[in-house]
Design a protein that fits this description.
The protein is an alpha/beta fold and 492 residues long. 40% of the residues lie in helices and 20% in strands.
Length: 492
Amino acid sequence: MKNLNMLAIDLGASSGRGIVGSFDGSKLELRENHRFSNDPVTVGKHFRWDIMRILHEIKQSIRETKLSGDDIAGFGIDTWGVDYGLIDKHGEMLSNPFHYRDTRTAGMPAQLADRLGVKELYDITGIQTIDFNTVYQLAADLRDNPEMVQNAVRMLNIPDLLNYFLTGEMANEYTICSTGAILNAKTRKVAPEIFKKLGLPMLVGDVVEPGNCLGKLTDAVSDEVGGVNFKVYNIASHDTASAVLAVPATEEDFVYISSGTWSLMGTELTSPLVNDDTLAWNFANEGGALGTYRFLKNIMGLWTVQETRRQWKREGKDFSFADLQTMAEAEKPLVSFINPDAPDFVAPGDMPGRIVEYCRRTGQAVPQNEGQIVRVIMESLALRYRYVKEGIEALRGKPVKGIHIVGGGTKDTFLCQLAADACGIPVTAGPVEATAIGNLLMQYIAAGELKDLCEARELVIRSFEPKIYLPTADRAAYDEAYGRFCCICDEK
């Protein structure tokens, strides 16, 4: 079989890249052809994505395939969830998309409780309550700029928006749309009653499943990138949906952590799990590829480390991530903790100062140096994984025997080992490029080169070697630390 090449655009909260996948019928090989920074900007009072810069960089990746002589057959984009652009009747974008960390949606669930309560919304959508969910962002748009909302005819999540700029075709892809609490979990279609209750116009069109062929690049875009053209697919365009597609699991009921800026921890289901208990635990039923659901919980992830490093860099201390890991490993274990998901750690800013203040406020030993601060973050993340693991076990009535960690966080060997120690079960780490791999797998499935989810995961196992971490720590010490962690988090 001649190698079949596809281009995946994997766009994260701080960077993006183009990955060329080459499939020879037996193994999948990856090659990065373009990497770029994704820098949100503050404009006035608000935090926004620089969407036109992102579009420019995607075109650079496409152009590079021409310069490198790659014969590209397909193309797909994955990104983070919930954010979107609004399109008017002339096909123009009305406003640069807001960043989900913008503060305009703070407290929105409570503000909307009289029109659409948390339980009512969860019963329809199965999506965990987070202030920046798409539904709350749309409500904030209507409150702050009703004229703009009334002029909008379509809402497109970020990958759908970028696909529209490239192809001229609009589609709301299921996995990305499902993250925002605007779809019915059971039907996998838009929930019109939500829009009606909030006084919003219907801004979502027909929802398409992953594997839909959207078309090709417009003639103008094709000319701009050197005459390149190929099929553009709606892949599982939420990055976690793509990452889960690439989990190299052969067992049923596997648990995964898609580890990066966020840690998305959950399991794969074939039907949504929505009841009072899952609401109490605030678990989401996000859409997955090929008829699956991602039953998961958001954990703040490596954002806290990334923002801590940025703060120290602003202060003139330019540590690498390897430096931070080395300093943390040298410190005494299990001293103090934070709740990674506390509101204190959502917004950018002086993260080390907030960690120190959190420890002081909760009556714990205050970290005194950079290594202690990073150790607090890492151990707190690992203990948070244990908390969510226990939630999955309680809600599904089945023990978790192992955890698959995929994504960029697998490069942090210290965190992977802490996860195994905190949870007391083996951790299988890899592949690092799970999101891009899942993007490519869906393209190959759509093109008829792979049959189904099982065949796709078998390809991942053949192509990428995982690393296994076994628990090595003192269980009694971790049990005692976990009790303290739950107390400072005010959780059971």
